[in-house]
Amino acid sequence: MTIDFRRPLTVDLFAGAGGLSLGLEQAGYEIAAAVEYDPIHAAIHEFNFPYGKTFCVDVSKVSGDQIRGESAIGNREIHLVAGGPPCQGISMMGRRALDDPRNALLKEYVRVMLELDPRYFVMENVSGLMVGKHRQLLDEVIELVNASGRYRVVEPVRVLQAADYGAPQSRRRMILMGARNDVTLPEYPAATFTPRTIKGAIPTKHVLPLGPSVLDALGDLPDADGFSELLNGDAVSPAGYGAPSAYAAKLRGLTPDVLDFSRPRPVDPDALTSSTRTVHTDLSIRRFDATQPGTTEPVSRFLRLHPDGLCNTLRAGTNSDRGAFTAPRPIHPTRPRVITVREAARLHGYPDWFRFHATKWNGFREIGNSVPPALGRAVGAAVLSADGVKPRRGRPTSLGDPAVLTMASGEAHALFGLTERVIAQRDRKAE
Questions:
Q1: For the residues of 64-89, what is the DSSP string, one character each?
Q2: 231: left (phi > 0), else alpha (psi -120 to 50), else beta?
Q3: For the packed helices 360-368 and 341-348, what is the interaxial angle rounded to 10 degrees?
Q4: Distance in angstroms (rounded) separating the CA atoms of residues 185 and 154
Q5: Of 62, 80, 87, 305, which one is the catalytic site residue?
Q6: 170-190 per-position pLDDT tens digit
Q7: CA-CA distance, 124 to 38, in Å (whole number)?
Q8: pLDDT the model gives residue 326
Q9: pLDDT tens digits along 154-173
Q10: Backbone dihedral angles phi then psi of residue 161, each to the nearest 5 degrees
Q11: Is residue 311 flagged as an active site residue?
Q12: Entry pTM
């Protein structure tokens, strides 16, 4: 598999499993290279984007020359560098926030971006970076970019809501965009949908079309609890799907999406994947069953999704080195159980061909840490439009080796030739 050099090239830093990569590919980009520190997630990215080069490395230990030299990019122009560097701290008053080691990766993103010299860059992050003391972090990132003398930032910086672009989930992300001095600055994409509320209320007046609902995302999926195979595995076929909504039909590949310029992937239309079951106690099942849609179950504090509403923001949980705690998983709108990884993927906007790690813990982390593809697509399309680039549909590609979907952490380390463990061993009792 090779890069399609007819399409503009992008590099995704802090790529995770590839939500932003997918959105940018749908906008018309070719994912020429991606960088991800966690071997499990890097392996999943490589599985879903096998045509590009996935680097499993700490961004602070990679250079722009290395990314170019060890991928197919070489000396070709990179159109976009994108990524969402984590930041976990804020310095004490009087100190530069980027000098705090917990925020170092924000500075490393800017360094690698400048070394790669793209036409454009996009940095996404939590909406909290816009307010309070954390605004200092964002201001210092902008200062670093401006100090290069080569790039400009689109200001004021904005927070975008994924539901405004067709995701059936409320998820707000800060989007920082910029351009090299010799190209046109992009504009933030206008909303294309009117979002529903989490509790299912529908706006009485709206000009834009109403966005998809939880039921639109989940209504056609088979019930995972009906398959004993999903107690110890994440896939079953044939599964027996119901009639899809317009939203679900696109994710299943049954109807074309005229604004999706991604590379087509193979998909088994009868298979249900990424759907390992969660076994609940009888007491939990009764409590979930008694919880009204759009309300919170009082003991677990899990939200029961409203079929006519939006999903609440799906969270990732914590890394192994921070306790490996599982994030709350919403309760299915019509079934007395928490949602599966595939159901979370539908609520995030991933197509059904996209695969995640077979364990629920890693699968939910890969979704909870990712950008909804619809949001990434909207931002990518805005950047291409600013540069006058007409998107070209990608060539079909296969997927990677299915063995990576069930790899243990040690196996994923070995896959990338890592001799030292970079991600702590997970305590299996934490799931």
A1: HHHHHHTSS-TTSPP-EEEE------
A2: alpha
A3: 10
A4: 7
A5: 87
A6: 999 999 999 999 999 999 999
A7: 19
A8: 64
A9: 999 999 999 999 999 999 99
A10: -100, 120
A11: no
A12: 0.95
